[in-house]
Amino acid sequence: MKKIFKNLSIFLLIIAVWAIFIEPNMLIVKHYKIQNENLKGLKIVYATDFHFKNNEFKKLKKVIKKINRQDADIVLFGGDFVNGQIYEKTLHPGVIAKLLGDVNSKYGIYSVLGNHDCWLDENKVKDYLVKYGINVLSNQNKVINIADNRKIYIAGTEDLYTGKPDIKKTLTNTSSPVILLSHSPDIFPEVPDFVDLTLAGHTHGGQVNIPFVGPVLVPSEYGQKYAAGLISEDKKQMIVSRGIGTSIIPIRFNCFPEIVVITFY
Q1: Dist CA 164 CA 187 (whole Å)
Q2: Which of 67, 100, 156, 221: disulfide with 181, CB 3.0–4.6 Å?
Q3: By CB neighbour count within 10 A (0-12 exposed, 13-18 middle, 19+ buried), where does 162 fall?
């Protein structure tokens, strides 16, 4: 019995070390290939839920380096750049925005804000991002002219928890192809069919994903349904990223931090 208890203790210690110190500091590239004639040939990088803490300057530079290696046509951000609600716990939003301005993107960088950004200071976070060339969408859309005389609409909603997402207003005067940004995936049932792809985050994939059980805690009224990955409903598709940082508890298990690369063919 003592040997069993000792082995179990060692196993749990290894799991704890992995979940606290190793996995949260890893960063994978999650690739998706989506068939869409209107977006054929386009490569998009999507990153969300950074939650940069005040000691994570090097981590921020690592994320930027990883994004730039993807040689994206368009880079999209899903919000929650900062960590927590007070400046002492987060890397300064001005520093975050300045470095993210160094991200390479052929047709620009577009973003929405998350609940943490708005809790800290919505206007300041937005102003910093805009100052360094990042377009922030708040129930708005932008049209991008791309190669071969094609155009694409990038639309973005307000955060579900701190604002008032207005899908109709967000998509005003748009038509396919449209990519919709929302910090939370819970707006997905309201998204009309003509939107080609919805991108969301907020859930962190649950942060702890137990084999055969799934994500332990998903901040969504739909539970595990919108936790992470490519989700199809009727004619609609949504990708929910597990994000990069952590929130509430600084651990990840079987839920690797990621940036998402989407290639349309």
Answers
A1: 11
A2: 156
A3: middle
Whole-number Å distance between alpha carbons of 79 and 202 = 8
| Distance of alpha carbon 155 from alpha carbon 174, whole angstroms | 9
Domain that holds residue 62: 2-264
Q: What is the pLDDT of residues 73-127, one digit of tens each?
A: 999 999 999 998 899 999 999 999 999 999 999 999 999 999 999 999 999 999 9
Terminal CA-CA length for the chain:
58
The identity of residue 89, as a single letter, is K
Instruction: Report DSSP state, residue 208.
Output: B
pLDDT at 69: 98
Burial 126-157 (b: 16+ CB within 10 A, else e): bebbeebebbbbbbbbeebebeeeeebbbbbb
Give the count of domains, the chain: 1
> What does the pLDDT look like over 3-48, one tens digit per residue?
777 777 888 889 999 999 999 999 999 999 999 999 999 999 999 9
pLDDT in tens, 37-78: 999 999 999 999 999 999 999 999 999 999 999 999 999 999
d(CA 157, CA 171): 9
Query: Tokens 């989700």 correspond to what residue?
Result: 231
CATH code of residue 21: 3.60.21.10
Please state whether 3 falls in left (phi above 0), alpha (psi between -120 and 50) or beta.
Answer: alpha
Residues 6+ apart with CB under 8 A from 42: 73, 74, 146, 152, 263, 264
